[in-house]
Design goal:
Elements (H helix, E strand, L loop, with lengths): L3 E4 L2 E4 L6 E3 L4 E2 H10 L1 H8 L3 E6 L9 E3 L12 E3 L9 E4 L3 H8 L3 E5 L9 E11 L5 H17 L5 E4 L5 E11 H18 L4 E2 L11 E4 L9 E2 L15 E2 L1 H6 L10 H11 L24
Parallel strand pairs: 13-14
Antiparallel strand pairs: 1-2, 3-4, 5-6, 5-8, 5-9, 7-8, 9-15, 10-12, 10-14, 11-12, 11-16
Pfam families: LigD_Prim-Pol
Keywords: Ligase
Protein name: ATP-dependent DNA ligase
Length: about 300
């Protein structure tokens, strides 16, 4: 019998709690739910008022993975949704995870949480910029850290504050809180920044996606700022061999990184980090850190 749990007055059926989702570590679905309940405070702050896309992996990372933007079948009527018109479907809607009950309902589906760079009701008007640093083997997150430190200083020169987090896979994400800005303008600025990084660090950075250019270098993916794109949310679990987390990190940790293992964080690591450091991505939700993009005069192709 599927147990029913009462969360914020909502009855939620939590199924298959003993099912092992991460065989390498024995991490179960019940532990996935416990993890999301533990990090609910900061995670919900970053999901707040944003349409959510789900990468679902109900049989674990080794099973079927499927990405969905539409509300999953059986979504309760108390789960908030918001219109997100698309070219192929002007009536499309997406889930907004706006409280612990909605978070536990979604976590029971076994998901990664992904969000766009704009809030509900304001498609294509971004309030953050994201740079996805993706290392081409044999480069690792160590090389990503070197690129991230350059980007941090460059952003600061434009009066912008950057936060860093692991992707939960092999790379890093930098996020910058912004005044609401058209996504096209954010994309243009991000592209120019990636090009500048390549010019200053030609042996380390590449701004184009072509695989032939990427071995041993860090691809600074500026395309994440397109209105239709989404990025893994801070604190989301990832569908990897182990229950890795897209974990916010301090700039001291970035500067000190010497091996790829230095910036790998599992679900059990996050509560102690939050107790010690608080939310290292909190600047994204603090009005005093919000920046304004400088004018973009144009960028090379």
């Amino acid at each position: 019998m599927t147990p029913i749990t009462l969360v914020e007055g909502r009855r939620i059926a939590l199924s298959n709690l003993d099912k092992v989702l991460y065989p390498e570590t024995g991490f179960t679905k019940g532990e996935v739910l416990h993890y999301y309940a533990t990090v609910a405070g900061p995670l919900l702050a970053h999901l707040h008022d944003r349409p959510v896309s789900f990468l679902r992996y109900p049989d674990g990372p080794g099973g079927q993975l499927f990405f969905t933007k539409n509300p999953p079948p059986g979504t309760p009527d108390w789960v908030r949704t918001t219109p997100v018109p698309r070219s192929e479907d002007q009536s499309a809607e997406q889930v907004v995870v706006d409280g612990l009950a909605a978070l536990m309902w979604a976590a029971n589906l076994v998901v990664e949480f992904h969000t766009p760079q704009w809030p509900a009701g304001h498609p294509a008007r971004a309030d953050r910029m994201v740079l996805d640093l993706d290392p081409g083997p044999p480069a690792t997150v160590v090389e990503c850290c070197a690129a991230a430190l350059w980007l941090r200083e460059r952003l600061a020169a434009d009066g912008l504050h950057a936060c860093a987090k692991t992707s939960g896979s092999k790379g890093m994400h930098l996020a910058v809180p912004l005044e609401p800005t058209p996504s096209e303008r954010v994309s243009a600025y991000a592209k120019r920044l990636a090009q500048e990084a390549e010019r200053d660090l030609p042996g380390l950075v590449v701004h184009r996606m072509a695989k032939a250019l990427r071995p041993g270098k860090v691809f600074v993916d500026h395309s994440q700022n397109a209105a239709a794109k989404t990025t893994a949310a801070p604190y989301t679990l990832r569908a990897r061999a182990r229950p890795t987390v897209s974990a916010p990190v301090s700039w001291q940790e970035v500067a000190a990184c010497r091996t790829a293992a230095d910036l790998v964080f599992l679900a059990d690591d996050i509560a102690p980090r939050l107790a010690r450091d608080g939310d290292l991505f909190a600047a994204l939700t603090e009005p005093g850190r919000v920046g304004r993009l400088p004018a973009v005069r144009g960028a090379a192709a």
